[in-house]
Amino acid sequence: MKKESIPLSSAIADHIIALLEEGATSPEGWRKAMGVVEEKWGRDAYTVLLFVLSHLEFPAEKARHHWERILKQWEELDRRVPGPVDLRVAVLQYFLRSQKKLRNPTIVELKILRRTEDSVIIDELTRLFNFRHFQERLKAEVRRADRDGSTLSLLMVDADDFKAYNDTRGHLAGNVALRRLSAALKRAVRETDLVARYGGEEFAILLPNTPKLAALRVGEKVRRAVEKAKIGAERAPGEAGLTVSVGLASLPGDAVRDQQLVERADQALYIAKSLGKNCVKPYSDERREHSRLDAALVGRFNALAAEGYTLTTLNVSEGGLLFLSEHPLGEGALVRVELSLPSGPEPVECVVRAVRVVEQHAGFETGAEIIHMSPPHQRRFRVFLHEVREGRVALPRGRIGLSASLLARRTSDDPVRTPA
Q1: Are the C-beta atoms of residues 264 and 298 closer than 8 Å to each other?
Q2: Confidence at residue 63, expressed as pLDDT on a 0 to 100 scale
Q3: Helices 27-41 and 44-54, interaxial angle, to 10°?
Q4: Going by C-beta distance under 8 Å and a sequence separation of 6 or more, which residues neighbour residue 305?
């Protein structure tokens, strides 16, 4: 079986290269530094260390054995040779003299190593991470999220009408636009997030430890950042510049595997394109049809942190709520709902998006789509609706407690639709 090469893009290699550039300069210092690395990543760290230093590959235990002997020989060299001995000199001395049966190692200069590493993981045009590195990080982040029980969100971002932009302005202008677009994407996210060129004018943004609601905000921030950059508008007065469409999917709610997460985010991106572009669309299984149940659930929502307003649902389903309130919500507003069910003391929580707001004589009728509900709460809610349909639970015509708080503030450009 062919042994895979150690990826220079691994986190261990990054850490070791940083140690070589700015870390310890003595055998004892390196012994302590690698002890910390081993504690964090295990003994595979020694395999990576020797590969980075010499391009020789060893199993973990063998690599650790060589490393201990290198340190001992380095200490002997320090005693015999006037002046400090560099680590790479000690490594070269060890493999060429003490281990003559091994093929000659290649001691790599750090600047060359860093350039080689960049060529492996960096897209030359945009200076973002490339598709290959994105795939590696995606697999790693999905494994970590599964192991830790944490969340992971993915934004798929596509430049709107970029082919027409290229055709009318030329490929050079198109390349400049892609560079500016890439810079805008990086500025809009955290340093811990990964921004990669997925291919052509499509980009991927990995958001570790980010639930769907927070990722929606990031997606909107990304969209606004690109719109605000007015890329290309300076050459065509009156034009708005490039815009992007964004699709979003999250673990564990939308997918359980890495490629499934990409597919779901891509599906959401397709919907965003079909809805007119320059928008953010979260993934939802829209093929599923939900029957609605008439229910008068009375509760409240907060448009601002300290302001509460009552609402009464007209009907509910697995996919959404229809409710009346005296206070208007803007279309697209995100609301967290805590719904108290007769079947248990703990409320069922979900996040809904207002998709239709119509002013009525009795208030504002709002149709809201459920965009996130954790699996345990989803199961409880579905059981409740099933029991209602089967007649085992009667919905009272009085009150079932419903509370909600608005998580995305309504802005002046969130219109309230009124009937003609």
Answers
A1: no
A2: 87
A3: 130
A4: 405
* Per-residue pLDDT at 409 exceeds 90: no
d(CA 142, CA 115): 28
Position with higher pLDDT, 2 vs 323: 323
Q: Is the dihedral of CA 106, 112, 115, 119 positive or negative?
A: negative
Is 358's pLDDT higher than 80? yes
Q: Which amino acid is at 218?
A: V
Residue 351, SS3 per DSSP: strand
Provide CB contacts within 8 A for 396, sequence distance 6+: 342
Q: How far apart are CA 30 and CA 60, in angstroms?
A: 17
Phi and psi at 280, nearest 5°, equal -115, 130
Residue spans of alpha helices (H) in 149-196: 162-169, 171-187
Please compute the mean of the pLDDT values over residues 343-359 and round it to a whole number.
79
Cβ atoms of 322 and 314 within 8 Å: the answer is yes
Torsion sign over Cα 282, 286, 288, 290: positive
Place of tokens 């202008």: 173
Where is average pLDDT lowest: 199-208, 253-262, 359-368, 396-405? 396-405
Judged on CB neighbours under 10 Å (0-12, 13-18, 19+), 294 is exposed
Give the position of tokens 């080689």: 116
The residue type of 270 is Y
The mean per-residue pLDDT over the stretch 7-31 comes to 73
Three-class SS state of 249? strand
Tell whether omega for the bond before 252 is within 30 degrees of 0, i.e. cis: yes
Indicate yes or no: pTM above 0.70: no
What would you measure as the largest C-alpha separation in the chain, in angstroms? Answer: 95
Contact 40, 2 (CB under 8 A): no
